[in-house]
Amino acid sequence: MEWRHACPRYFDDHLLYAGLPVVLSLSGGFSELGFTQIRCVLMGACNMTREIARAAIVSVGNELLFGETINSNAAWLGRALAEKGIVVSRGYTVGDARTSIQDVVWTATQFADLVIISGGLGPTTDDITRNAVADLFGRRLHRDESLLANLRDRFHAHGYGEFPETNLSQTEVPEGAIVLRNPHGTAPGLALEQGPALVVMLPGVPRELHGIFLGDLSTLLEEWLGGRMVPVHHRTLHTTGVPESRLAELIEEAMRADPPLASAMAEVSLAYLPDLRGVDLRMTASSVSSEEAEASLDRAEEELEARISRWRYRAKSGDIVESVSGALTDRGLTLAVAESCTGGLITKRLTDRPGASTSFLG
């Protein structure tokens, strides 16, 4: 006997998808769309009365497109929003062009509850984000006299004799916008309500962006999104000596053959993160209750352990050297190496960790 459920949205590894059918077989097997879609039934996502808050990040700057600057702001915002329980479902990078900024911001407001734009709030002619967004939504710009007074005081306090006229643009605020204080710079953040979405503009200087986000913006997000912020919890399992594709095959095969494993994995999403040292398995659980999320991660880890123990190593830092050094110390063993082609690299890696001399002989 099967129950067919039209799931409006489900959460999978930080992404929301719409309108996918789900088939759950009461005889104990899963069919049609498989474990990922079944997860939304088992996690209760389809029964949520309110959707999880979704965000889009828009990064502005030619220097990002030219590869001159690494987009660290997008990575930082992704982590910060996830910690608050806001799902970042899309990200955009555009140059300093009015139509490009307007196109992606408009697109983002059609699906996201929160749109965060970073960059383009400086005082120079290529800083056009404020004007582009105001024009897009038909908001007139007006000079905020309190911002102007604070800006003049700031320049005076830093010993500048004259106030640069170019900085006047940083005192202009779109009609209806909320000013977000910048504790580390001259460009305030700006937030405005546009239909069901909150559009936020932040300066591109990382220190300034962080300060505004952790200050006024965090308070505003609590007020704006409230109960729709569902914290995301991660746990990473480290493996080495097995290719990503083979590891994925083994886990998928085990899930099909082992209902307890399938049930445990249905409560989390699983991502494979390969690099030179091996493959990390990042498990993610989303729940208002931290205890429930951690319990889901515990069950998934326990069930996975039997399948990956051959290749798994434990290290809080993620560095396999930590695991090797710890194992040697715990067992009272010592290690010596003879290197040729590696040119001393193994020795360096082992001795980079404090206390290496207790187990490493040279």
| Sheet with most strands | 6 strands, mixed
Distance between the termini: 65 Å
Tell me, briefly, the overall form.
globular
Helical content band: 25-40%
- CATH H level of the largest domain: which superfamily? MoaB/Mog-like domain
Return Rg in Å. Answer: 25 Å
Measured by DSSP, the beta-strand proportion falls in 15-25%
What structural category characterises the helix and strand content? alpha+beta
Tally of discrete structural domains: 4
| Arithmetic mean of pLDDT | 84
- Please state how the strands of the largest beta sheet are arranged side by side: 4-3-5-10-9-8
Number of helices: 12
Uncertain residue segments: 1-50
What does the secondary structure layout of this molecule look like, with pairings?
Blueprint: E1 2-12, E2 15-25, H1 35-42, E3 54-60, H2 62-65, H3 72-84, E4 87-94, H4 98-109, E5 114-118, H5 129-136, E6 141-143, H6 145-157, E7 172-174, E8 178-180, E9 189-194, E10 197-202, H7 206-225, E11 232-239, H8 244-257, H9 259-265, E12 269-275, E13 278-286, H10 290-308, E14 312-313, H11 320-331, H12 345-351
Parallel strand pairs: 3-4, 3-5, 5-10
Antiparallel strand pairs: 1-2, 6-7, 8-9, 9-10, 11-13, 11-14, 12-13
Helix pairs in contact: 4-5, 8-9, 9-10
